[in-house]
Fold:
Amino acid sequence: MDSLYSKYFKLNSKHLAILIDPEKHNLNELKSLSKRIDSSGIDLILIGSSLSMSNYDEAIRVIKLNCNQPVFLFPGNSLQLSAEADALLNLSLISGRNPELLIGEHVRSAMFLKQINLEVIPTGYLLIDGGVKTSVEYMSNTLSIPNNKFDIAVATAVAGEYLGLRSIYLEAGSGALNSVPTDLIRAVKSQINIPIICGGGIKTKEEIRAQWDAGTNIVVVGTAFEQNPSLLEQF
Ligand code: 1GP
Structure:
């Protein structure tokens, strides 16, 4: 079987992902949300939260029973790992200098990951200033890259590629006022040969399209779908 990486992480692909924080829904809500996702244009599902210490097994089982899109873990910490998911974005927060999020959590989870049948996608995670202090910035105890410092973002992404990471995630943070600027995405895209995921503060179809046009391969939307689930059908 083809890996999910080879299916969804192509350099020219354009996908839309929904970010679900299982803590914000009970199992019945997750069931109906998953059914809506199943018949929407969403390509994949990311599961995670900056804050939660919960186990996501049950939530992922409900999601997978009710829709066909693959479930990628997007964990805020190693307690959110689950063998029920299809793949893991193994995030290293390379824009920050917090050793726990660069390598510490990864060491703690490594032998568990070896035991379970989960595709692991090494991902460089870059926080880009989104105009407001976000949960991920506060919880990670790191500084985000100013969104006009393209050279720092580019050098960080290139460093990630040279470390062997297989995708770059540009994150403005959930609920960001400003999504990652398209010119910054273009600048990063022009210098790396691995796919780009981008999320934080994206609310409209036009923004999604602009992100794709700038070179994002997987656009991630969370809050906008939470606040207005009917966007699932519109998008
Ligand atoms: C995923 O943090 C984003 O990268 C989700 O952000 O909730 O603002 O869509 P929103």
Remarks:
- The chain has one domain: 13-234.
- The longest strand covers residues 119-127.
